[in-house]
What does this fold into?
Amino acid sequence: MMQKKISFVIPCYASEHTISLVVQEIITTMDDLQQYSWELVLVNDCSPDNTFEVIRNLCISNPNIIGINLARNFGQHAALMAGFNQVSGDIIVCMDDDEQTPGNEVGKLLEKIEEGYDVAYARYVSKKHSIFRNIGSRINSKMTEFLLDKPKDLYISSYFAIRRYIVDEMVKYDHSFPYVIGLVLRSTKNIANVDVTHRERQEGSSGYSIQKLLSLWMNGFTAFSVKPLRLASLLGLILAAVGFISTIILVLNKLAHPSEVMLGWSSTMAVMMLIGGVLLIVLGIIGEYIGRIYICINKSPQYIIREKVQGKKSSESLF
It folds into this structure.
């Protein structure tokens, strides 16, 4: 019986002190799971430190490791897409580079895939993220429930295993703003959760700032849902209805009390500012869609590979 091949994809950013430990744990774990062969794709997202030099040395020491160096920082999801385009395995496992995702529990995810599921997401019994990151994750979960029809009981994390045919479908998406969760949810609903341990961060802090989280959420709802546009239309209808009813009330009040002097400069200005603000928000949403369409039409790349290193024998540079 032929061995199934597991491809690990790990986006790396400022992890020169942790990525070697993550890789070693994966190698040790896969040595115990002898029913599988494996490869490891490490994607350096233009780290400001020596992360890629560490990756290069790991590739030299083990032919099963592939190193990808991106030309600039494209973000975690673009780095994942770069890795997906390099894999050759039957099952792809994605995880973090900071030791928080337990590589020694990958067998749990693989077992769930072997049960027949297309995707198995790790669900953390006790999360060790910062309060800011946990709030961001909760908002992201609610957003995907509303905009992408994610099941309420499904927990989404950066540690997951996925069948090859789903990845083959995902890499067909070549637009400028990849959002892996959206690509998964539009490809399959045969998804399960697996409880795993979540570790404390050993050093550094999360690379997700408020700006990056907002950009990620924007990718999600502009690339995979038109519900924001429908909400904008609904808001316009509600305001129009309120304005119409208010006008009828004012007319009836004037007919009933013709001698009454109608004042209301302050309230009029407040209403105008409210409506003006809503219009600007709606125009902003429409503009965001149009802007992203323009960027996609101009074929802005998801990522650019500066250098690829594999094993002891092959090393190629794009410069």
